[in-house]
Design a protein that fits this description.
The structure is a single chain. This protein is mostly beta strands and 73 residues long. It contains one helix and five strands; from the N terminus they run βαββββ. Strands 1-4-5 form a three-stranded antiparallel β-sheet. A two-stranded antiparallel sheet has the order 2-3. β4 and β5 form a beta hairpin. The radius of gyration is 12 Å and the shape is globular. The two termini are 21 Å apart.
């Protein structure tokens, strides 16, 4: 398994594009500079009134499938 750490700052208005299906994937850069793309639907549980903000950890299996996405404290 591999873990990727990244920060997100998506406003509520910007996330509406994902919610409406206008954009399907989120592209982030991990803290060590790697590019990571994943379906925006995985962020739904993190949406707040002001959007999505914070540090996250994504765990990927050996087939590059997401196992989990968690917000870090």
């Amino acid at each position: 398994m591999q873990r990727y750490y990244f920060s997100l700052s998506i406003s509520a208005d910007e996330y509406l594009r994902y919610y409406r299906g206008e954009a399907a994937k989120v592209l982030v850069y991990t803290h060590n500079g790697q590019r990571l793309s994943f379906p925006a639907r995985h962020l739904r549980k993190f949406v707040a009134i002001n959007g999505i903000h914070g540090k996250f950890c994504m765990t990927i299996d050996h087939n590059n499938r997401m196992i989990s996405l968690e917000r870090m404290n």
